[in-house]
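Lab channel / #folding
Pinned by the channel admin:
"Please post every new chain as: sequence first, then the structure tokens as a reply. Keep commentary short and put observations after the output so the thread stays searchable."

First post following the new format, from NK:
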Amino acid sequence: MARYSGSNTKERPYKMYVSRVEPAGRMTPLVQLMTVVEGELVVGAPERNSAQKAQTDSYIEDALAAVPDKDVYLFVHGYNNSFDSAILRMSSTWHYLGRKGVPVVYTWPAGHGGIFGYFADRESGEYTVSNLKYAIRAISRARNLERLHLIAHSRGTDVLSGALRELNLEIRAAGKDPRAELKLQTVVLAAPDIDPGVFAQRFIGERLAHVAQQVVIYVSNEDKALGMAVKVFRSKDRLGSLDAQSVRPGARDLLTQLRGLQFVEARISGFGSTHAYVFSNPSAFSDLIKVLRDYAAPGKETGRPMERENGVWIVKKNYPVDTGRE
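Reply from TO:
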């Protein structure tokens, strides 16, 4: 990929594939760790659990020790995605980040297609929330981690926000700051397949908007794939299909005042305007790279020259393309 992206000629098609997978370990399912003591559920075999934690911590810390930037980029894929497709999407993104930090992919059973597969994937998403929480906790524990970035796409945004919601409640209940505890720099929700009301409840009502330094939501009314979710849930809209024109005055004022929460409308069409536009469209992808690589806030002075309408930042077709290469 490095040779191809640096070449001036792109005459031959370039196909990526996963050539080899080497298991580094296996975590015991949470249910299997539990036991009953005097009628109460408790974590059984604490020595086994401690050994697993030590193994996980060592693996993450060793990976971070091998790179100059102590960032971890965790990607959560969406509906009807395979293990391989998630790996390829994150590896491509990491490449254009300048191979900065450590890329991690969290995969869950979401390889079903069609409307019935959508229901199956939704159930799988609910099941996997606890495991994603464990993964985020495990990465955050790494002593040499400086910044954690969470990127979710489509249905994966609901999975991630569910995990963050529970972590937020648990950490606040312990009297701690979730942002500091989890070392969260960025949360990206790309083409979010979430009901706008659910988003408002979680990110505004339960203050998930403050869980990271930046929470960036990419939306586009050109995203036709979200139409199936509208039909399935009989909801008027999905968060990912909103645009600046649909923002009400109260929401506009909130978006304008809240630091760190950014709605970015990808006002694009044609090439790369599919449900995966954030990763395939040059303009939208360029902005994502600036957010993740440079931690850049919107503005010309930071290299993200966007206009703002009704509290929403606009990425247009002529947005500066920055692939992250030196």
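NK: The chain has one domain: 70-316.
TO: also worth noting, DSSP finds twelve helices and ten strands in the chain.
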